[in-house]
């Protein structure tokens, strides 16, 4: 069995801390995560939190953004693979129905959105992800000949975010109920001018 190098051990500790932070943000809320609880969950000494990250907040920021990035990238991939933006949005809605609004991924998003209202660094990082995805949708709508691509992209993204908040309050909601309305909004044949 190969012995881990210091760099490999460091990467392993960072990965464990980030995974533990994502779990704890969902379980305890952003402000409920302490260095001690985080270190215990990750199975490391609490001093390693500050050795690997400038602060607990820096670790939480990175954990939240890393949790969001695959979902954002997956949505961008849906846009690239779908025959039309309207089809991509419908596929996105089908994916969203996998989330309950109270599942760990949804809770990390919700907690991060709230924390971003008070943390300019987190707000900047999340803004980069959200505006990038919105721009990708607007570009797809522009290529498809939509008459108001930016407005449609802003509306779709706001509806998706709002839906996830509502689903946490009413788990019976289905994103697919929004499909006809969002399809009309993103359809290039009948798009508003």
Q: Beta fraction of the residues?
A: under 5%
Instruction: Let me know the average pLDDT.
Output: 92
CATH superfamily: Tetracycline Repressor, domain 2
Number of strands: 0
- CATH names the topology as Tetracycline Repressor, domain 2
Shape: elongated
Structural domains: how many: 1
Number of helical segments with 4 or more residues: 9
* Amino- and carboxy-terminal Cα gap: 65 Å
Q: What is the ordering of alpha helices and beta strands?
A: HHHHHHHHH
Tell me the structural class: mainly alpha
| CATH architecture assignment | Orthogonal Bundle
Radius of gyration: 19 Å
Low-pLDDT segments, ≥5 res: none
CATH uppermost class: Mainly Alpha
Largest sheet: none
Helix content: over 70%
Keywords: DNA-binding, Transcription, Transcription regulation
Pfam family, one: TetR_C_31
Domain HTH tetR-type: 11-71
InterPro entries: Homeodomain-like_sf, HTH-type_TetR-like_transc_reg, HTH_TetR, Tet_transcr_reg_TetR-rel_C_sf, TetR_C_31
Summarize the structure in words:
This protein is mainly α and 193 residues long. It is built from 9 helices and no strands. It has one domain: Tetracycline Repressor, domain 2, CATH 1.10.357.10. Helix 1 crosses helix 6 and helix 4 crosses helix 5. The protein is elongated and about 60 Å long.
